[in-house]
Design goal:
This protein is mainly alpha-helical and 607 residues long. The chain has 25 helices and nine strands.
C-alpha cells in the first residue's frame, strides 16, 4: 500500500472508522485534564486532616518494609496494646523495663486505619517514589525561598484525581444504564463539577477510592436486579454478582470501617429485589462480606485484643464522658461509662440535628440535592431506577445514623473534608436522580427550540457548579495548610532527634508524616498523665506544641482549664517564662517560625 493510501485510510478511520469515537472524545479528555491543572494551580491545598497524614505515613512504613505500623502514637493505642500484652503474659514475671509491652521501642502496630487505602498508597510510593525532603528552592514546590507544596502530597492528590475520573466514568455508565445518553452526559458534567469531590481529591483521604468501590457495588446491584426480573435468570450469574457485591462491601469496610454498615441496605435490597433466589443471594452476599473482613479483624484481635483497634471506640469519642479527643489522649482511661446507653443517645441527638438541617442539602451540591429530594415525590417508570432509588434512601438513612454516632474530634479539626463524612459517597446517586427529575420538568416545559432547551440546561449546570467555578477564579488560595502545619519546621525539629527518641506533640500525625519520626499525641494533661506516660511507658525527649495549643482561649482553656492543662502550661512557659519545676524538658531553641519546642538538652548547634 502506498503512503498516500495509508494516510487516507488512517484519516478515514479517524473520521468514521474504528478510531472515530476515540477521536471525538479527545477534546473532552483535554478539557478534563485542563480543568484538573487549573484546579491544582488555583485551588490546591496541602493535607489539612489527621486521616490523610496518618494514612500516608502508614503507607510509607508499608512501602519501606516495616509492616502495617505507625509513627503516630495515640496514648489510647498504647493503652490497648499494653493491656493486651499484659493479659497474654498474665502468669509470667513481668518488669516494665525488661518487656516492651507498649511496643514503642520498635514498630508500633497501627490500630486506627483500615488497610486498603494505605496499602494502595504504598504501591503508589513504590511505583512513583517521591522526594521526602521539602523543596525550598525549586519552582512550583517553593516560591522565593518560601515553601508551597510537598511533593509526596501532590502526587497522592494526582492519584486521587485519577480516581475522581473513574468515579465520573462509572457515574456515566450507571446513568446510561438507568436512563438515556442525555441524562448520562448531564450527570457526568454535574458530578465533574461537584466542588466537594474536588476538595476530597486533594485532601489525601480515602474518599475517592471508597467512591469507586461504592459505585462498583451499585453496578453489581443493578445487574442482580436486572437478572432477577427475567423469566429464567441464570442462577449462577445471580450468585456470582451477589458474592461480588459482598466482597465489594468487604473491600469498602477495609477501606473505611464505617462503610461496613452498607451491608445492611445491600441485604435488604437483595431480599426485596433479588428474584426467586432472594434469601440465598442475601446470605451469599453476607458470607462473602464476612469472609473478606475476617482475616483483618483477627489481626486486630491479635495486636490489641479488639476487633477494630482504636477505631472501634469512635462511638465513645465525643460523648460527655470523653469530649473532644480526650479518649485518644488518655494513658489509662476509665471506660465504665461506655457500658451505658445515655452517652450514646445524647451524642446521637446532638449530631443528627445538623446532619438533617445542613449536611443533607450539601450532598451533590445544594441545588442538585433540592432536585433530588423534590424528585422523591415523582414516580419513576423505570423499575431498575425506582429500586435503586430505594437503595439510595436506605443508604442515606444508614449513613446519617453511622455519621452521627461515629463523629469524633476529626470532624472538628477538618469540619467538612473528613473521613467521617459518609454522605458524600451518595453524591453520584443524588446527582443521577436529581438530573432525572430536572429533565422530567424540562420535558414538560415544551421549550420552543432545541437552542433554548440547551440554554436552560446550561444555566442549570452553571448554577449547580458555581462553587467550583468560584474556586477556580482569582485570588488563588494558599497551598500551605498553615497554621498549624509547616513542613520545613517539622522536618527541622525531627532532624534534631535520634531515630529511637520519642517526640510528643499536639500534631503528632504531621510529625509522623513530614518528619518521619515516632511521635505521641500530647497526653490529657501536662502533669499526672504526662508523667505516667514518661515514667512507665517511654521517656519523652522532646515536646513540640504548635499554634493549635498556643492560640487557645485565655480564660476557658488556659485559666479555667486547670493548673495541669497544656493551655496553662503554655501560658506560664511562653508568657511568664516559668517551666514547671518537675518538668523534665527545659531547653528551647531560638528562631522557630511558630510553636514551642522543649527538649532535654541542646541539640541544634551540633547539626
Amino acid at each position: 500500500m502506498l503512503n498516500s493510501e495509508r494516510i487516507q485510510h488512517f484519516i478515514h478511520a479517524l473520521e468514521v472508522g474504528k478510531f472515530s469515537r476515540w477521536f471525538q472524545l479527545l477534546p473532552l479528555a483535554l478539557a478534563v485534564i485542563g480543568l484538573a491543572v487549573l484546579y491544582d494551580l488555583n485551588a490546591y491545598r496541602g493535607f489539612n486532616s489527621v486521616e490523610a497524614m496518618d494514612a500516608a505515613q502508614v503507607a510509607r512504613n508499608v512501602a519501606d518494609g516495616k509492616g502495617y505500623t505507625t509513627d503516630f502514637i495515640r496514648p489510647f493505642s498504647v493503652y490497648l496494646v499494653q493491656k493486651h500484652n499484659h493479659e497474654l503474659h498474665a502468669g509470667e514475671i513481668q518488669t516494665t523495663n525488661a518487656v516492651d509491652f507498649a511496643q514503642l521501642n520498635g514498630a508500633h502496630p497501627d490500630l486506627a486505619n483500615a488497610p486498603v487505602y494505605p496499602t494502595v498508597l504504598a504501591g503508589l510510593i513504590k511505583f512513583w517514589q517521591p522526594k521526602w525532603v521539602v523543596e525550598m528552592r525549586k519552582p512550583f514546590w517553593s516560591e522565593g525561598g518560601r515553601f508551597l507544596r510537598y511533593q509526596a502530597e501532590f502526587r497522592i492528590a494526582i492519584f486521587n484525581q485519577l480516581l475522581l475520573l473513574v468515579v465520573v466514568a462509572l457515574t456515566f455508565f450507571i446513568t446510561k444504564k438507568l436512563f438515556d445518553v442525555q441524562a448520562a452526559w448531564l450527570t457526568t458534567l454535574l458530578t465533574l463539577g461537584a466542588d466537594l469531590l474536588w476538595k476530597f481529591s486533594v485532601s489525601g483521604q480515602s474518599t475517592l477510592l471508597l467512591l469507586v468501590i461504592f459505585l462498583s457495588l451499585v453496578w453489581c446491584l443493578i445487574k442482580i436486579e436486572e437478572l432477577g426480573r427475567t423469566e429464567n435468570p441464570s442462577v449462577r450469574k445471580l450468585f456470582i454478582f451477589a458474592v461480588t457485591a459482598g466482597l465489594v462491601v468487604g473491600a469498602g469496610m477495609l477501606t473505611r470501617y464505617a462503610f461496613g454498615w452498607t451491608i445492611v441496605p445491600v441485604i435488604i435490597f437483595l431480599t426485596l429485589f433479588g428474584g426467586v433466589r432472594r434469601p440465598g443471594l442475601a446470605v451469599a452476599a453476607f458470607l462473602a462480606f464476612a469472609l473478606a473482613v475476617t482475616p483483618w479483624l483477627i489481626r486486630n484481635l491479635a495486636a490489641s485484643g479488639t476487633l477494630f483497634g482504636t477505631a472501634g471506640y469512635a462511638v465513645v469519642e465525643g460523648t460527655f464522658a470523653f469530649p473532644g479527643s480526650r479518649l485518644m489522649q488518655s494513658v489509662n482511661p476509665d471506660l465504665t461509662s461506655a457500658y451505658w446507653v445515655r452517652p450514646y443517645l445524647s451524642k446521637f441527638m446532638g449530631n443528627i440535628r445538623p446532619i438533617l438541617q445542613n449536611d443533607l442539602l450539601r450532598v451533590g451540591g445544594n441545588w442538585v440535592a433540592v432536585l433530588f429530594f423534590a424528585g422523591l415525590l415523582l414516580g419513576l417508570r423505570n423499575v431498575a431506577a425506582r429500586r435503586l432509588r430505594y437503595f439510595t434512601m436506605m443508604c442515606l438513612g444508614v449513613f446519617a445514623v453511622a455519621q452521627a454516632l461515629g463523629k469524633t474530634q476529626l470532624s472538628n479539626i477538618a469540619p467538612e473534608i473528613n473521613s467521617e463524612n459518609l454522605l458524600v459517597l451518595l453524591t453520584p446517586l443524588v446527582v443521577i436522580f436529581g438530573v432525572a427529575f430536572f429533565l422530567t420538568l424540562l420535558n414538560q416545559m415544551k421549550t420552543p427550540s432545541p437552542q433554548i432547551r440547551l440554554a436552560v440546561i446550561g444555566v442549570m449546570a452553571v448554577i449547580s457548579c458555581q462553587t467550583l467555578i468560584a474556586n477556580l477564579l482569582p485570588p488563588k488560595s494558599s497551598p500551605v495548610s498553615y497554621p498549624p502545619y509547616y513542613p520545613p519546621e517539622i522536618q527541622k525539629i525531627s532532624g534534631w532527634m535520634h531515630p529511637d527518641e520519642l517526640l510528643m506533640s499536639d500534631i503528632p500525625w504531621a510529625v509522623a508524616w513530614y518528619g518521619d519520626h515516632q511521635c505521641v499525641w500530647n497526653t490529657v494533661n501536662s502533669q499526672y498523665e504526662f508523667f505516667q506516660f514518661n515514667d512507665y511507658v517511654k521517656q519523652v525527649r522532646g515536646l513540640y506544641l504548635t499554634l493549635d495549643t498556643l492560640n487557645g482561649k485565655l480564660f476557658t482553656e488556659c485559666l479555667q482549664g486547670g493548673v495541669d492543662s497544656w493551655g496553662n502550661f503554655c501560658l506560664k512557659t511562653v508568657a511568664a517564662n516559668q517551666i514547671p519545676p518537675q518538668f523534665p524538658l527545659r531547653t528551647a531553641p531560638y528562631g522557630l517560625l511558630s510553636g514551642l519546642f522543649l527538649t532535654d538538652r541542646q541539640r541544634w548547634e551540633a547539626q
